[in-house]
Design a protein that fits this description.
The chain starts with 14 loop residues before the first strand and ends with a helix. It has a four-stranded mixed β-sheet, covered by helices on one side. The protein is an alpha+beta fold and 113 residues long. 36% of the residues lie in helices and 19% in strands.
């Protein structure tokens, strides 16, 4: 049974955790939108994304993006960049890289079988 495009995962599913008010949601999702090109390979029901920040605007600020994707271990990426927009770009790019790495591993494993 084919899955419709609407059932595909996207950053629209992102849950905002500690430190991010709902009023920032549209801007955050916009900054992370590039991830849709990696997420769309997964069924939306099987994906969980959460973004949080500790010590926002403090000296030890840490932005964390956590992804649970099917057939993969949980992926957690973090940034300590002082500007939120820079931290969002860093976690977005790192999650992109990590998804590619995990998909490549799965492809190699499939070819070995």
């Amino acid at each position: 049974m084919a899955t419709s495009r609407d059932d595909r995962a996207s950053v629209d599913q992102l849950r905002l955790g500690n430190g991010f008010p709902d009023s920032e949601r549209d801007e955050i999702v916009g900054r992370l939108r590039k991830l849709d090109r990696r997420l769309k390979r997964f069924n939306g029901d099987a994906v969980d994304l959460e973004l949080s920040v500790k010590d926002r605007d403090g000296n030890d600020q840490q932005v964390t993006l956590e992804a649970r994707l099917p057939k993969m271990q949980r992926i957690v990426v973090t940034s300590r960049k002082p500007a939120i927009k820079d931290a969002l770009m860093e976690v977005r790019n790192e999650l992109w890289r990590r998804i590619d790495t995990e998909v490549d591993k799965m492809t190699v494993e499939r070819h070995r079988q």
